[in-house]
Amino acid sequence: MSKKLTIFFVLHFFIVITLAAYMEIKDTIFHFYDKRVSIPVLGDLKNKVYDNKYFTNYLILSGINTGYGFFGLGVSTDKYLTVTLYDSSKNMIDSTDYFNFRTQTAYNRFKGYASFLANYIQETEEIALKDKSIKGIEICKTRNLYINKTFKWLGKNYSALKNVNSRSYKVKLSTIVSNNIWEENDNKNLQIYDIKEIEFAVK
Amino acid sequence: MILKKLNSLLNKSTCFFEGTIKEVNFLPFFRITIGLIALIDLASMSSDIHLFFSNSKAILPQELMYLESQYFIIFQPFFNFLINNNLESFFYSTIIWIYIFALILLIIGMFSRAVSIIALISQLLIFKTFPDFNYGYDNFLTMSLFYCTVFPVGKYLSLDKYFFKTSDIYVFNYQRVIQIHLCIVYFFSGIFKSLDVSWWNGNSMWKAIASTTNNYYQIYPVILLLLGIGTVLLETSYIIFVSIKITRKPVVLLCIAMHLGIALMLKLYSFAAIMIVWNIAAFYNIQTVKYDVTGKVVL
Fold this sequence. Notes:
heterodimer; A: alpha+beta; four-stranded antiparallel beta sheet; 5 helices; 4 strands; elongated; B: mainly alpha; three-stranded antiparallel beta sheet; 15 helices; globular
């Protein structure tokens, strides 16, 4: 029994280490050289073995389908979404970045989603710049549709609950501009940059 | 020749995992604290859970939440099956209660292994349907519940022990598994940070804590510099210093302090809690029992 368990955990940790190493090397190369390259051995192991459906199920069940580089390379600043409701005369009725969240735990998850969306938008813009092929254009189209739909739903749910007089709503994704803390007074005030905003009519 | 070498390697690995001293309270501590953290985390977002997980009230349509994730191939046929059989509302209304019930049974140690499996599957079914709203805590909870299904977590301080009179002896050092996993986590996390110059000059620390809802961004750069360098050094060298008996306690205490800082500044309470539990479970010897070669307890 002890030997069987040893074999199981040796294999388990082999997967944990190789997956973590693969993800870190891939992200490090992307961070410094801005390109996705195939990594010998680890890349093959990931693509040919770990992406196999039986293996994927094991990785999902055991929770090891993850890297450990949280807050690692290129830490990003805080991102947040805001929805603003307007009446027919374009006067602001209501605005929030808390949406309908009442608990800190859930709101933290929502803020994580804002970071995901910011990365997704940036990646889409990069694909649009680099890949001018028909496939690239199609990918960008699908990704932009996803962004649009997401923004629309986020505002729609809030708008429907909040005010019957609202005629339009604007959903905005903003970020704190990263500063150099060693430049005088740079960390005394926060600067906000709007990554994307889309306005929708209330139907 | 190769088989002989493999066998000797296996024997060495087995010795590494077996040991003669085992932490008897590790198993109940891990089982109870993981169950409690999962339950408290769920309770702390109980009034908002429907915004992530529901068929009509979610902040985004459920399929839009997992569309861009690796779970799409699993959930799409699953939800199609539920919709086709009119089971969707039944699923949403019952799965959370199944999860809660399984966690309660896990905490009291009733059918520990079976309920660990149920809790693990329920946790995946609930939380992975909104993977873009997940963070480190969710993965660590999945790993913890997975380990609860593999480890004999019902051996001590459990109703299983009371009703089924299971044996006290176990030959495998399960605490070692958590120790190795934790060392891997900190090592990779530390190496990744150390490659970024922003962690060595405090800028990454500022980016991590700056928010419109607090004033941490006004902290003196020197403090951020020291915290940044301290974090990188602590995580990268964790594997070395926890292996040395004299430095083990201070390093684990520093890690706990680091996670308390994460809880306080980033408000990631559940993540901090689960990492603290892993650290304590892995390295704190609450009550050790020495075994002889036959597996009997040496008094």
